Amino acid sequence: MHSADEADSPYDGDRISRRMDEAFSALFGQPCAALWVSSGTAANGLALAALVEPHGAVVCHREAHIETSEAGAPAFYTHGAKLILAEGDGAKLTPESIAAVIDPIEQGVHYIHPQAISLTQASEYGLSYAPDEMSALGAFAKERGLKLHIDGARFANAVAFRHCSPAALSCEAGASTLVFGCVKNGGMGAEALVLFEPALADLVKVRRKRAGHLQSKGRYMAAQLLALVEGDLWLDNARAANAAAQEIAGAAGDRLLHAVEANEIFLKLSPQERAGLRAQGFGFYDWGDDAARIVTAWNSDPAHVGKLARAIGGL
Amino acid sequence: MHSADEADSPYDGDRISRRMDEAFSALFGQPCAALWVSSGTAANGLALAALVEPHGAVVCHREAHIETSEAGAPAFYTHGAKLILAEGDGAKLTPESIAAVIDPIEQGVHYIHPQAISLTQASEYGLSYAPDEMSALGAFAKERGLKLHIDGARFANAVAFRHCSPAALSCEAGASTLVFGCVKNGGMGAEALVLFEPALADLVKVRRKRAGHLQSKGRYMAAQLLALVEGDLWLDNARAANAAAQEIAGAAGDRLLHAVEANEIFLKLSPQERAGLRAQGFGFYDWGDDAARIVTAWNSDPAHVGKLARAIGGL
Amino acid sequence: MHSADEADSPYDGDRISRRMDEAFSALFGQPCAALWVSSGTAANGLALAALVEPHGAVVCHREAHIETSEAGAPAFYTHGAKLILAEGDGAKLTPESIAAVIDPIEQGVHYIHPQAISLTQASEYGLSYAPDEMSALGAFAKERGLKLHIDGARFANAVAFRHCSPAALSCEAGASTLVFGCVKNGGMGAEALVLFEPALADLVKVRRKRAGHLQSKGRYMAAQLLALVEGDLWLDNARAANAAAQEIAGAAGDRLLHAVEANEIFLKLSPQERAGLRAQGFGFYDWGDDAARIVTAWNSDPAHVGKLARAIGGL
Amino acid sequence: MHSADEADSPYDGDRISRRMDEAFSALFGQPCAALWVSSGTAANGLALAALVEPHGAVVCHREAHIETSEAGAPAFYTHGAKLILAEGDGAKLTPESIAAVIDPIEQGVHYIHPQAISLTQASEYGLSYAPDEMSALGAFAKERGLKLHIDGARFANAVAFRHCSPAALSCEAGASTLVFGCVKNGGMGAEALVLFEPALADLVKVRRKRAGHLQSKGRYMAAQLLALVEGDLWLDNARAANAAAQEIAGAAGDRLLHAVEANEIFLKLSPQERAGLRAQGFGFYDWGDDAARIVTAWNSDPAHVGKLARAIGGL
After folding, report:
1. What does R_g of chain C's alpha carbons equal in angstroms?
2. Shortest Cα distance from A75 to chain C (angstroms)?
C-alpha cells in the first residue's frame, strides 16, 4: 500500500485516487465512478449540475441543506437552476409531497422544468429513509422523468440505522448520484461524489476542475475515503455515533421532537435547561427558543455521552 | 418630430431614443433614466440584476410572474440569485408577509442574502397596491436594507384605478426600478425600464447589450413608448381597459374571486358556462376547473364588452 | 393573409409566426426551424449556447463581431464558454487558421474544449466565403468534431454576390445554425435564427424565453421576416446594396483595402479627404487614421451613391 | 498551540484559521485578509471575481495558467468575464504588452471592459518579476484603472530569488490580490488567497462558500499555511528548490531556454537525450519535441539533483 505522503502523479492520476472507482463499485455492488471533492456543498453542486440544465429545477425539501445552508451553491454550479421546495415531516420527501409542488407547473417554454429530486439521507432532522421509502421515491422519479440525487452527508449513519446494504438506499432505488459523506464520519476534508451512471464522470470531472476542486495532491483526499470504505470503518464509525445518539434519545423520553434514526437528537429543552447542561460542559446547538440539536460523532467519548444522557434524564 | 422610419444613429443614440429619459422624468416628476427593452421578462431580469448580487435573493409573491412564468429568467440575468416566495391574498405582498420569509434566514456566509423585493403592480390577480400600501412597503424595504422593484406590466392600469400620480405608486414610495408596461397597453414590442436611481443606468446599459437587447434600430421601440407617455395615451388606454373590466365585474356579482382593480376579472364559471360563453364568441382563459380569467384591453370593443357583461349577468 | 395588427395568439403561436419554419425550410430546401429574435447579438448567443457547453469554446476570427462588438454576450449566453481567436485575411477563417489555434490545445480536464466554429458571412471586412470555401470549412469542422455557426448579419449580401443558393453557403456546407440577418437588409427589429438541426429548437426556444427574447406580440417580428423571405425581397434588397457598393468600389481604384463582396467598402482616405466628402453630405465611418468604411443599404439612393462614387473618383 | 486534530469550531471559526489574517498581515507588513482555499485554480477564480464584473475582462499572458490550464475556471467564477491575451518573453507581462491589447478596445456598451491584470509570479517559464518591474506594472495598472492580481503558485520562489520582501513583489506594487502558493512549496492541499484590500473579504468569503470551498474542518488547511508562514519555512523550502534549480541550470549551459529565476528549468534536450536521462531514473516533462521542463521541489534530494546536474553536463 502506498502512503499519500509519497510523491505520485498529480491530480487524480495517483495510485490511491485510481482505486476510488473500484472501491466504491465494490461497496455498492455495481459499477460506479467515485470522485473525491473537498466539501459536501461542492459535491452536491457538481451532482446537481450533472442532472439538470440551467433552466431546470430540483425538487428538495424546504429545509434541505442545499436550500438553507449552501449560500446558493446549487444555482452557482447549475448556472441558475431553481430549487423547488416541498414539504414533509422531519425534512423527508414523499412522492406525494413532490407531486404537490410539481404537478401545478405547466409545461412549455414559459415555465421551469423540474428535472431532478434531491433528498438528504439521513434528513436534516436525523430521520432516515427506509429501503422501501427509497424505492417508492425512485419509482416516482422514474415515472416523472426526474433524476434522483442523494445528499448523503450522513449516509453511513442511515445505512447503519437501517441495517441494510448501501445499495438499498441508493442505486437499487434508482439514484443517479450520491454524496457519500466522509468529513462528518471521521474524515478531514473529503467527500465522495458517487456516480451510479458512470458515463456522467467525464463531464463531472471537467466541471470539478473548472470549479477549482481538482486538487493537485488529491491522493490525500483519496486516502481518507479509502481508509473508510476499503474496510468497515465507515460503518463502525457511523454505528458508534448512532449508538451514542440512541443512548441520549433513550434518556430524553417525550422531550424528543423527532425519531432518532442517525446521529442527531432534537429535543425540547428550555433556555434554563440548556444553560444548566452547558454549565456541566455539554455542547450542542440551540434550536429555536425551546429546543436543542445534539450531534454525536464517530469519536464521541462514551463516558461523556453517558453523562449527558443521565443529565438529560435527570432534568 | 421625427419618424422612426427615418434613418438615424443606431442603437439608442437616435433622436427619439434620446427623448426617453426626459419623457419619463417628466412623467414621474424626478430625474430618472428610462431604457427601452423588448419584453417585460428581459426588463425584469435587467432590473433585478441591477439590485441583487448572484448570491443574493429577491422576495416576491409565490404567484409572481417572475417566479411562475419567466422560465427562470431572473436567475439567468442575476447569475443565480434566488427568488424567495412570500404569501399574500391576491398575489399582493405586505411587509408582514415579506418579514415572514426573510426573518428566519440567518446571516452569514452560509445563507442567502435577501437584497430586494419585487412586487407586481397591478398584481397577477388584478389587484392594485394603493399609495399607502406602496409607502408601507417602501419604508419596510428601506428599514431592512432591501431595494424595491416593480414589475409594472399593468402599471398604467393601477395608476388609472388609483387616480393618483404614477410617482405615488413608484418612486415616491422608494422604488429603485420599475418596468413600465407598454405592450399590454397598446404597444407592439417595447417596455420601459425606468431607473429611479439614474446612476444605475451605465451598468444596466452594458448588461442590456450583453443580453442582446440593444436593438440597432431602437428608435422603433422608443417611438412606441413616447407615443404613450409624451401625452395621456398611456392613461387613456388603461382607463378604457379598466372601464371595460368594471362593466364586466358589475355584471359578475358574487361570482368575482378578486376585487377588480385593473383590467383583469377572475370569476367563478363552470365548464358548461364557459363553453356557453365561448359558443357566443367570447374569449378568455380557463382558471382551474371552475373559474375563468378575463382580460380586457385598451382596444376592447365596447359593444362586445357590453354583450359579454350581459351574457355573464344572464347566466 | 393576416396582418400583424390583428389580435392573435401571443408569443410565437400566432398565424404569422407559425409560417416561419415552413418559409425558411423552403428557402433552404431542407427542413429547418426558424425563430425570430430581436437582435443579432441575441441570435448569435442563442445559437452558440446550443452548440457549446460552458466549459467549451468557439473558434472565431480575431475581428469577429461576436468577439469585438457584443460586450461578451456569447459568454453570457453560454455561461462562460471561451472565444478562441484565429487569424485570417479580411476577417475570414480557413481550416488552416483554425487548426493553428486549436491544435496546440491539449485534451483533458485542465483544458478548454473547442466545440464550434463561428464565421461571419459576409465577413467584418465585407468579404464573402464562396461555396467551396464553405464546404472546406464544413468538412474541416466535421472532421474535428466541431459544430459550425454562421453569423449572417449580411448573409443575403453574400448570397447575392456569390450568385448561389442560400443553402450552398450554409446547410449544404454542414452549418448547424445561421443568423439570417434582416435588420441590415430592411427590417426594423428582427433576425431569424435558423436551426438546420431542427431538434435543437426545443431547447433554444426555452433559452430564448429565459433570455427575455420571446416577445408576446412576436407576430410583428415574424411579419418582417416573412416579408423578406416569402418572396425575393431579401435578395432584391441585398442586390441593391451590393450594386451600390460595386459602383463606389469601381470609383475607388487602388484606394480599396479589401475586395468588395457585399455592401461594405473599406478604402484609404486621408483625414482631409474624409472631411471634404463629409462637407458634401456623405456619411461613413472613420477606419483608423487613414481609411474609411462605407456601408451601402437596401435603400441607398442611386443618385446619392452615384454622386459619392464620382466624388471619390475625383479625389 | 492547538493541533488541527482537536475538535474546534467548524469552517473558519477555529483557533487556527483565526490566526490567518494576523499571520499574513505580519508577513506583508500591512493589514490584509487571508483565506485558505484548497486549490490555486479556485483561489485565482475567487480573486478575479472580486476584481472584475461579468462583462469585464482580465489581461493576462497568452501562456498564463489561468488561460491555458484551468478549464475556464476564471469564466466560471466571474460569470463570464473574458481573458485578454497579451504577449511577452518568458510569459511575463509588461506595461507595453498590456497596452498593446487594451488600447485598441473602444469604450462603450458594445465592448469588453478591461478591469484587471493578472500576472504569474514566478512566470510559467520560471522567470520572476523584479520589484521595479512590479512597481512599473502596478503604476500602469493604477493609471489605467485596472486592478492587479498575482497568481503566486511559486511566489515564495520568486521572493527567494529576488532577495526582497514579499511586500515588494505584491502590495507595495499595488496588487489587490495574491494567491500565495503552498502546495508546490510543501503543503498538502491549501493555498492562501491574500486580499490586500481587506474590505473585499466579506464578499469573497460568501463566494468561497458558494463555490463549495468553505471546508468544515478548515483548520487542517490553516495549519498547513501557518506552518509555512509563521516562521521561515516558506522561504527555506523555496530556497531549497531554487538552489536545486540553479545547480541544474549551471550544468545546462547554453541548453537553457529561459533564465532560471525560480524552481523551473527549461532546456533543449533531444528525444534521445531525454530517453537517456529517463533511463537513469530522472523525471521531467517533455516540452515540445526538443526540450524538457524540469521542476525542482522543496524536498528534492540533493544527491539526486547533483546526479542529474552531472548527467546533463555530461551530455
Report:
1. 20
2. 12
pLDDT one digit per residue (tens) for chain A, 315 residues: 678 888 899 999 999 999 999 999 999 999 999 999 999 999 999 999 999 999 999 999 999 999 999 999 999 999 999 999 999 999 999 999 999 999 999 999 999 999 999 999 999 999 999 999 999 999 999 999 999 999 999 999 999 999 999 999 999 999 999 999 999 999 999 999 999 999 999 999 999 999 999 999 999 999 999 999 999 999 999 999 999 999 999 999 999 999 999 999 999 999 999 999 999 999 999 999 999 999 999 999 999 999 999 999 999
Overall pTM surpassing 0.95 (yes/no): yes
Domain boundary (C179, C201, C231) is at: C231
Select from B79, B71, B44 the least CA-distant residue to B60: B44
The number of residues making up chain B comes to 315
Residues B140, B82 within the same domain: yes
Q: Which residues of C touch A (CB under 8 A)?
A: 53-55, 79, 109-110, 113, 203, 205-210, 214
Which backbone phi and psi does C61 adopt, to 5 degrees?
A: -75, 150
pLDDT tens-digit series, residues D159-191: 999 999 999 999 999 999 999 999 999 999 999
D227 lies in a domain? yes
Q: Tell me: do C169 and C155 sit in the same domain.
A: yes
Pair (D227, D258) in one structural domain: no
State the nearest Cα–Cα gap between A249 and chain D, in angstroms.
23
Phi and psi at A96, nearest 5°, equal: -70, -40
Query: Which of B199, B231, B263 finishes a domain?
Result: B231
Grid coordinates belonging to A304:
461523556
Same structural domain for residues D52 and D159? yes
**Count of other CB atoms within 10 angstroms of residue A35:** 27
Q: What ipTM describes this predicted complex?
A: 0.97
Cis peptide before B275 (omega within 30 of 0): no
- Residue B64 falls within a domain, yes or no? yes
C41 contacts on B by Cβ (under 8 Å): 209, 212, 214
Record: contact A208-C109, CB cut-off 8 A = yes
Which chains contact B through at least 3 pairs of Cβ atoms less than 8 Å apart?
A, C, D
Domain that holds residue B301: 234-313
Q: Are residues D210 and D86 part of one domain? A: yes
CATH number for the domain spanning C160: value is 3.40.640.10
Interface test with D, best of C69, C103, C115, C289 (most D CBs within 10 A): C69
C202 and C307 co-located in one domain: no
Q: How many domains does chain A have?
A: 2
- Across the beta sheet with D56-61, the strand order is D33-37, D191-195, D177-180, D147-152, D113-120, D56-61, D82-86
